[in-house]
Design brief:
Number of helices: 10
Largest sheet: 5 strands, mixed
Number of strands: 7
Oligomer: single chain
Radius of gyration: 24 Å
Structural class: alpha+beta
Helix content: 25-40%
Strand order of the largest sheet: 1-5-6-7-4
């Protein structure tokens, strides 16, 4: 019986890594008319008007009792306007990241969008959040870690101390029964991960090594996860996004053809160990 060789890739999502053609990776592709007509993006910022390139003051806010008494706001350059919008973007992010070791990430990623020119982003804090998510998910029906543990235990050739190549697909099937790590839990709405990552675009899982001895095994798993820090048309068309100034500013900075700040790939990876034995009860 042919034994599986390691490291061995056992799972890849249909969405591919580094897909710069994805809809949420578009930038600088919409005109002022399209933003206003198709997405109702009229009221963008409380600080600057990206269409007229003017500062907004109490005298230029329609809801203000002083509106119109001093004419149009101070003219600013496109670069000055972008700077003002990014500052407000960061300020508004506080509502989505109240606490936790990850609460600073959204401001860091907004600044990265402002200056990073679309290059991929990674952070030890993102890697840590991914690892914590995988290790703390103890739901037997969802945890890819626990489902893989059982699939390995059931399919290992205990007599020859290896994993048969013919049963490799059982590992992929086990993962498909579960739920890939995503940051869409209730607590992610407040800890900063829901706004920085939330859903994920692509996931690769690899078994780096598998050691079998004395009726037990130890497997080393590597998770590589990628998300896109960008908004697509479907996002901004939803009321739950469009109602927030935070997302309106984000969309305009990314998609308005006078700005066109590039979205970027968010990369996360972690390595974990799983152990089990031949006779333990099914989890």
């Amino acid at each position: 019986m042919v034994a599986l060789q390691f490291p061995c890739s056992i799972f890849q999502t249909q969405n591919r890594m580094d897909d710069y053609g994805a809809k949420d990776m578009h930038y600088g592709d919409l005109s002022e008319s399209q933003l206003k007509t198709h997405f109702d993006l009229l009221d963008i910022s409380t600080r600057a008007n990206p269409y007229t390139l003017t500062k907004i003051t109490p005298f230029t806010q329609p809801q203000s009792m002083f509106y119109g008494s001093r004419g149009e706001g101070e003219k600013i350059t496109r670069q000055q306007c972008a700077t003002i919008l990014f500052d407000e973007f960061r300020h508004l992010s506080q509502a989505f990241s109240v606490y936790s070791p990850y609460s600073h990430l959204i401001k860091q990623m907004i600044t990265y969008m402002q200056h990073g020119n679309g290059s991929p982003f990674s952070s030890m804090h993102l890697d840590s959040a991914l690892k914590e998510h995988i290790l703390r998910d103890n739901s037997t029906g969802n945890s890819t870690r626990l489902l893989l543990k059982e699939a390995i235990r059931v399919n290992v050739d205990w007599e020859n101390k290896n994993y048969p190549t013919k049963d490799r697909d059982e590992l992929r099937k086990a993962i498909l029964k579960g739920r890939l790590p995503k940051f869409d839990r209730l607590k992610d709405n407040f800890n900063g991960m829901g706004i920085t990552v939330h859903d994920t675009w692509a996931t690769h899982i690899t078994i780096k090594s598998l050691h079998i001895d004395n009726g037990s095994f130890r497997a080393v798993l590597h998770y590589k996860v990628q998300d896109h820090f960008g908004l697509d048309v479907a996002d901004i068309s939803k009321f739950k996004f469009n109602q927030f100034r935070f997302f309106r500013i984000w969309f305009v900075l990314q998609r308005y053809n006078q700005f066109g700040f590039k979205p970027f790939m968010t990369n996360m990876e972690t390595t974990i160990e799983i152990t089990g034995n031949r006779n333990e009860n099914k989890n």
